[in-house]
Amino acid sequence: MSPRALFACVAWFSPWLPSCGPSPIHVDGVVRESSEMRPLRNVAPNAYRDLRVLVRAAAEGAQQAATGCGVAPLEGNADRNNAVCVPADASNDAVRFVRQRLRSYGVGVARDAREPYDYEVQVVLTGVAPRQPDPMQAKAAARLTFVLGPSAASGVFHGVDRPSASAAFDSVAKDCALLDADMTTFASTSTQPMTPAFDLAGLVGDAVDNAIGCDQLARFFLEARTRYPAIAPAPSPPPPR
User: Which DSSP string corresponds to 113-165?
Assistant: First the structure.
């Protein structure tokens, strides 16, 4: 190592590190919005006409979700972390883009929790940190979690035999590569390089497409009432005279 390089190294790390080595990265993302809407995926027409959702940012239960930052231990030095963060206010815009994309597929979107809805769509936006000290490997990630809501029994699943539909949904979830999936809860994700700019509308749009844009899921909701009808209870016999 040349004297100049050695001086630069010591000046950067001294007095905390005894010698030169990889330094952790911290990338703060910058939102770049798309100028045009991406085409929708080809799904059955009117497949989601009976589906209604409530979209909002996920509750701030975990610190990572609350801050929008992802961390990963630096390769070769587990005591130090790389960090990648999305803008703190990006979640509000992400929710808006998710609502727009869902409406484009014909999904009904509730204005607030006072309106009936079949699923709550929880939106999480966060950074994904690499283990290598390379900022070009930083990514932004979106995750949408669909949680069955209180109105589903009288809404999209009205007149549906839930056990039969739930069993069929397991196959749909595999075909659509949905995460942590059953009929009561399923999720989709998408990632995008953060350089540090990233396309927020494209990122969350891909997350919507990876669930709602799957034709098998669309046909499940379209055909649930006809393929898995609830069996009406047999009438009670008349009382003896």
Answer: TTS--SEEEEEEEEEE--SSS-GGG-EEEEEEEEEE-TTGGGTTTTTB-HHHH
Domain total for the chain? 1
H/E element holding 3? helix 3-13
Q: What distance lies between CA 134 and its chain's CA centroid?
A: 25
The answer to whether residue 66 is domain-embedded is yes
Average pLDDT, the chain: 86
CA–CA distance, 125 with 68 (Å, rounded to integer): 6
Provide the residue range defining the domain that includes 125: 25-227
Residue 172 burial class via C-beta count within 10 angstroms: exposed 0-12, middle 13-18, buried 19 and up: buried
List 81's β-bridge partners, or say none. Answer: 73
Q: Under a CB-based contact definition with an 8 Å cutoff, are residues 124 and 159 in contact? A: no
What is the separation of C-alpha 222 from the centre of its chain, rounded to a whole number of angstroms? 23
Token representation of residue 158:
């009205």
Look at residue 120 and tell me if it is in a domain: yes
- Helix residue spans in 22-131 (DSSP H): 63-67, 90-104
Question: What is the per-residue pLDDT for 64?
Answer: 43
- Average pLDDT on 15-39 reads 72
**pTM exceeds 0.90, yes or no:** no
Q: Is residue 15 part of a domain?
A: no
Q: Give the pair of three-digit tokens for residue 214.
A: 């799957």
Would 239 be classed as within a structural domain? no
CA 219, CA 39: separation in Å to the nearest integer?
20
